[in-house]
Specification:
14 helices; 8 strands; Rossmann fold; Translation Initiation Factor IF3; 398 residues; 49% helix; elongated; 2 domains; alpha/beta; 5-stranded parallel sheet
């Protein structure tokens, strides 16, 4: 059926009702076939959607690598390879929700997906969206059920990402037709040489009107379905119109490490007071400049003393190690007893392009020896050990 003739706003209540019927049927089947202890779904799920020609297949491997997944992706179109399903797909339409949900949910129980998986091409309809929400509710029920048991780590609270690779209609049609041309050329070469394997070429990749229809089906059904998850799960919108490297960088930027996406809530709450390295780096240069300017204005005398210490005592040693880029300076200067002076020392080296790390060592120095008792009285000597690293010299030999 041509979805362009359908109303733009589907009956949401009817879709929810349909989804409940489908989900109940699938879940009852799973509970009959498996015990609750066997209903171990992935901890992290990436729902990967995208316009036709957006490059889901191309980028799936990169996305999985970015999240540390070692399992294969679950490609919905590959799961549904029956003749009936293929006929529907060749028309640019979609396979029925009941078939998709039933096959997919059972596939997700495969042990290889326990830590996480990518669902390539799911969800595509609002009914599938509603079924996914109900499945996540079941995840949470299982999490609560096993939370205080030895199986708790097998039923962790789930994390759901929605990732959408988007291209415009013009780009989508161009890429679909280009893919069709490449596919036909490949198959022709295989037939002529006998080398390689014949690949399936979508009918929609060979006809501009069908390619356009497939894109509009995505916009009218899948796009709105994915958008509806934006306020519920972690949502990543990826501009996929550039070349492969550009798209990978867009994905990488979206999937920067976020503890809240991976840790249990109670674990994350305990770690929350410690800032992420990425957070403190963002404004580190501006903060350094602000601190140095403050030293000049508010602690000018102390700042000058530290600069003189660095210039007279430290730099001669650093200069002798300019080839290796690594030097160690031991100092007993009492100026470093002042925490502010120590902070100034580190900031001075940082501003000049060095990396300084300070250790404090203590040594007992004998002061008094009692001849009668043989007792030795020592004083404690504090030694500051400063390791200074920087980019060393590249020497041309030979």
């Amino acid at each position: 059926m041509d979805t362009r003739d359908e109303p733009n706003e589907p009956n949401h209540d009817l879709e929810i009702k349909d989804a409940k019927v489908i989900f109940r049927s699938v879940w009852e089947y799973l509970e009959e076939k498996y015990t609750h202890k066997e209903l171990r779904f992935p901890k992290e799920i990436i729902l990967l959607g995208g316009a036709p020609g957006a490059g889901k297949g191309t980028q799936t491997e990169f996305i999985m690598k970015a999240r540390g997944f070692t399992c294969e992706p679950i490609v919905i179109s590959a799961l549904l390879d029956s003749p009936e399903a293929k006929a529907i797909k060749d028309k640019g339409s979609m396979v029925g929700d009941r078939e998709v949900i039933g096959i997919l949910f059972e596939k997700m129980l495969d042990p290889q997906f326990v830590d996480g998986c990518v669902l390539d091409g799911f969800p595509r309809t609002q009914v599938q969206v509603e079924c996914m929400k109900m499945l996540v509710d079941k995840f949470n029920q299982l999490h609560r059920e096993f939370q205080e048991t030895p199986l708790a780590l097998s039923f962790r609270q789930p994390t759901i990402h929605v990732m959408v690779l988007f291209v415009t209609e013009k780009v989508s049609i161009e890429r679909q037709l280009s893919r069709g041309i490449r596919g036909l050329a490949h198959n022709k070469e295989v037939r002529e040489t006998g080398i390689g394997e014949i690949i399936d070429v979508r009918a929609t990749d060979l006809d501009e009107d069908m390619a356009r229809h497939r894109y509009r089906t995505f916009k009218e059904k899948t796009w709105s379905a994915l958008q509806s998850l934006k306020e519920i799960y972690f949502y990543h919108f990826i501009n996929a119109e550039g070349d492969i490297d550009d798209v990978e960088q867009n994905i990488k930027a979206e999937l920067q490490y976020q503890s809240s996406l991976e840790l249990e809530p109670q674990t994350f709450d305990r770690l929350r007071p410690i800032p992420l390295a990425s957070e403190i780096v963002v404004h580190s240069r501006q903060d350094l400049v602000r601190r140095l300017d403050t030293y000049v204005v508010e602690h000018s005398e102390l700042f000058n003393q530290v600069i003189e210490l660095v210039k007279v005592r430290f730099m001669p040693i650093v200069l002798r190690h300019s080839i290796s880029g690594y030097s160690i300076v031991n100092s007993e200067d009492q100026l470093l007893e002042d925490p502010l002076a120590m902070a100034m020392l580190i900031d001075i080296f940082s501003e000049r392009g060095y990396h300084a790390v300070v250790d404090i060592q203590r040594a007992d120095v004998p002061e008094v020896f009692d001849l009668e008792t043989g007792k030795i009285t020592c004083r404690s000597k504090k030694i500051w050990r400063i390791r200074i690293t920087f980019a060393g010299s590249e020497i041309r030999r030979g």
